[in-house]
Amino acid sequence: MTPSYRGKLAVLYEGQGDLAIYQQLAERLSVPLRSTATPGFDPHELFFLSWREGSLKLIDRQLLRKGGMTVEIEPRPGEQRSWPAPKTGALAQAIGRKTKTVIDATTGWGQDSLHIFRMGYELRCIERSPVMLELLADAFTRLTQLDWVSRLKLEPPELIPGNAIAVLSELEQAPDCIYLDPMFPPKRKKSALAKKSMTVLRELLGDDEDKDQLFAAAMKATAKKVVVKSPDDVEPLGGAPHESFSGKLLRYDVYLKV
Q1: Nearest to 236 by CA among 211, 257, 217, 209
Q2: How far apart are alpha carbons 217 and 168 in whole angstroms?
Q3: What's the pLDDT tens digit per position in 29-67?
Q4: Start-end of H helices in 80-173
Q5: Is 10 exposed, middle or buried (0-12, 13-18, 19+ CB in 10 A)?
Q6: Strand, coil or helix: what is 113?
Q7: Euclidean distance between CA atoms 237 and 230, whole angstroms
Q8: SS3 sequence, 190-250?
Q9: Computed from CA positions of residues 65, 70, 74, 80, in that sequence, does the dihedral angle turn out positive or negative?
Q10: Which of 26, 67, 120, 161 is deepest in the core (most CB within 10 A)?
Q11: What's the pTM value of the predicted model, to 2 decimals?
Q12: For residue 83, what is the DSSP state?
């Protein structure tokens, strides 16, 4: 079922670009189209989607004059810019050098997905939030426009909409690895967003109250392994893992299909 964003989210046209594209986005999400050109513009929603600086961004009303949040396609600090990037670090160790095909079942902001893509794995991405799907689709389009992606004639990861539990149950071919990064209740202060805005943001992007069912679906659907990313201070999602690799404040638990 498509979530209702009315009263929480709107598409914001700021006078630049093709208005029709903004209208189409608002129609896909069934949300209002607002315009800063309207006299007495007074935004009622807590979040807006708009194209700024060449990318689609999610904008908090309290930070309306700032840049907004977008899916970043450039490597994070410390990650290689070459392709394929070296399979080093905890994430690569967990996925494994012999792995070829990966499904990220909880794509979210896509940073781990894009790192997996840059390491040369064949990747498919599942996302159930319509808002996040729009942000990811925009990012993957921008990805194809990067010089190295174009020069190497690489295809971006396949983006699959829907609830991962259902999608995984209908796969025609099992991937070598299914990657899970479920949303755990926060125990550390991680954001400067106001509490109310963070609550709405989690509602917009979807929560992961069904992560136990998702793990079970992933174990059933994978050919070889499931990798679960979690904070280092929470219990392993699937019980004792076969092996675990630690990063900064987090770890990757590996469950082998036997």
Answers
A1: 211
A2: 7
A3: 999 999 988 877 777 888 999 999 999 999 988 878 888
A4: 90-95, 111-118, 130-144, 147-151, 164-169
A5: buried
A6: helix
A7: 8
A8: CCCCCHHHHHHHHHHHCCCCCHHHHHHHHHHHCCCEEEEEEECCCCCCCCCCCEEEEECCE
A9: positive
A10: 26
A11: 0.90
A12: S
- Please give the Cα distance from 175 to 172 (Å, whole number): 10
Instruction: Label the pairing between strands 47-52 and 55-60.
Output: antiparallel
Closest CA to 105 of 126, 122, 121: 126
d(CA 167, CA 132): 17
Residues 107/133, Cβ–Cβ less than 8 Å = no
Choose among 232, 188, 233, 237: nearest CA to 208. Answer: 237
- Which residue is listed with tokens 């997905």? 113
Helix (H) or strand (E) holding 14: none
* Regions of the chain short of the pLDDT cut 50: 192-194
DSSP string, 16-43: -S-HHHHHHHHHHHT--EEETTSTT---
Look at residue 81 in the predicted model and tell me its pLDDT.
65
Residue 166: how many other CB atoms lie within 10 Å: 11
What's the pLDDT score for residue 183? 77
Gyration radius from the chain CA atoms: 19
Distances in Å between the Cα of 119 and the Cα atoms of 33, 86, 114, 150 are: 39, 6, 9, 16
Which two three-digit tokens encode residue 99? 């792995």
- Spatial CA neighbour of 74 closest among 38, 110, 44, 24: 110
